[in-house]
């Protein structure tokens, strides 16, 4: 089951590593100039999950109210023979409907890119019809893993994006701000 | 099927991106001082696949004849909302049985780390008994994907490592040199 493995891989190989370091990374960031991050409590990674797995490299393309602001200081880890493998997150400035800015760390769930590309490779074994089902399975598996994780408690927000609504010009920023 | 998805993810999200750039990256590397890479033909990524999924962060731990030499110049790509995501490979100096050095780009297949960790998480759904089977399935799926890939043709070496032989002090360097 493709999504089951991708969700576990996303957690074990990435989220478990980076989420506990987010708070410290953000505190080192001069570009914030004392600006406060969205939401009370610890710094959370906002993980965007489009139901149609249509992941953009830059969210500005989906909604100009979501703007890249700064890189967080990177984490460097020796991993599986790759020396100093770099894990670097992106801080965004999200404008709400009143024009007020909200700063938050966000990205799309990268494994959805794999699901999208696999659905176009005939030898990969599944097509566009099963893809939506795989995205939902990925979301539910990831949600369950994260809810049971002590290391990642309260350090994330999972944001499911309905492709029936992506034509709305500020759907993305609205969803991020309300989560 | 966990390994099927991990092999596709490894290809679509990583190998397809980095392998075509390896040759150019190596040519920019001053630390080689004109030293020639192992093997005639294009620069290949040597991918280590231990059958027991026991992936080390540093191969020196498994065989002191495998030594980190230099970082290749990184590739930076905007991907899924992560701006300037860094892909950086490691060049190693591998001493053979005659003490002659061979330079090559190598790493363990990182998804095997996921398999290893999943086999210890009860809620992930498989244990150590199925793990060896999953590693073999990962290897065969990856081999088939890479053999049909036009972009990655001849740019890799898959090196299966038999855990029955890892007690031999220079098993790793010997396997790398002979592939
Ligand atoms: N947003 C984001 N930023 C990251 O730095 C990152 N690193 C991993 N991931 C995602 O976490 C999961 C676990 O990663 P793992 O390393 O086991 O597999 C990785 C790994 O085997 C290989 N790979 C990807 N990036 C690198 C890299 N920079 N160096 C070496 N190997 C890499 O290719 C697989 C698939 O990568 P992605 O398809 O980008 O998504 C991964 C994956 O879903 C990331 N996601």
Automatic annotation (TrEMBL), chains A, B:
Span of domain STING ligand-binding: 1-179
Coiled-coil region list: none
Cellular compartments annotated: Cytoplasm, Perinuclear region; Cytoplasmic vesicle, Autophagosome membrane; Endoplasmic reticulum membrane; Endoplasmic reticulum-Golgi intermediate compartment membrane
Similarity comment: family membership: Belongs to the STING family.
Protein name per Swiss-Prot or TrEMBL: Stimulator of interferon genes protein
Underlying gene: STING1
First-to-last residue of the parent protein present: 149 to 327 of 377
């Amino acid at each position: 089951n493709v999504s089951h493995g991708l969700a576990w891989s996303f957690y074990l190989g990435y989220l478990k590593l980076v989420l506990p370091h987010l708070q410290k990374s953000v505190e080192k960031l001069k570009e914030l100039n004392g600006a406060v991050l969205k939401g009370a409590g610890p710094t959370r990674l906002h993980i965007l999950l489009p139901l149609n797995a249509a992941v953009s490299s830059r969210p500005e393309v989906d909604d100009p109210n979501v703007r890249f602001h700064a890189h967080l200081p990177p984490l460097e880890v020796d991993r599986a023979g790759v020396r100093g493998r770099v894990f670097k997150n992106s801080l965004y400035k999200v404008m709400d409907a009143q024009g007020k800015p909200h700063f938050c760390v966000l990205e799309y769930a990268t494994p959805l890119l794999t699901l999208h590309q696999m659905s176009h490779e005939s030898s990969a074994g599944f097509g566009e019809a099963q893809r939506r089902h795989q995205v939902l399975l990925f979301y539910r598996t990831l949600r369950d893993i994260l809810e049971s994780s002590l290391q990642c408690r309260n350090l994330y927000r999972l944001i499911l994006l309905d492709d029936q609504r992506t034509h709305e010009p500020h759907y993305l920023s609205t969803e991020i701000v309300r989560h």
